Amino acid sequence: MIPALVVAAVLATSPDPSAAPSGAPAAQDSLAATPVSARVEDLDPLRRKLVKGELPEAPGKQLVLAKCSICHSTEYVTSNRLTPKQWQANVAKMRKFGAPLTDEEAAVLAEYLGQHWTPDLPEVRAKPVKPPKGALPGR
Ligand code: HEC
Fold it and tell me: Is 9 in the pocket of ligand 1 (CB under 6 A)?
């Protein structure tokens, strides 16, 4: 049994916002008490795309797809919420790790990421959790 993984897998399957029961009360209260699907519905179209992990059309998109998904998924990148300055530092760090970017590409990419995936953007995806001790063989 690996309950934590099961829970994570269930949470990662983000519900279809349109599947909310009709007549459900609009979410106006604190975000913490609001169901995730309702929160997504309350977002403007761009942010709705962003929290779903979609990449807005711009030169930065191709860079994310071509250069950042070499080592990890695009969703791993866009599940982060960083300030523009932090994105800049992150891109510099990834270049040190081996991301093949020219200075110009790095600037375009940092601006693209810093424009969209900022701390004010809600998080709707489950973060991976460590399975509890003893849940995996040999650990
Ligand atoms: C050469 C492999 C490689 C490439 C290419 C790469 N990354 Fe990473 N990335 C990593 C590794 C390894 C980690 C985990 C770092 C750690 O745990 O400190 C990571 C972690 C991250 C994180 C999590 C935050 C952090 O600092 O650990 C973000 C965000 C990220 N990468 C963004 C990007 C972006 C944006 C690009 C495209 C420029 C990119 N990565 C390209 C290897 C890579």
Answer: no
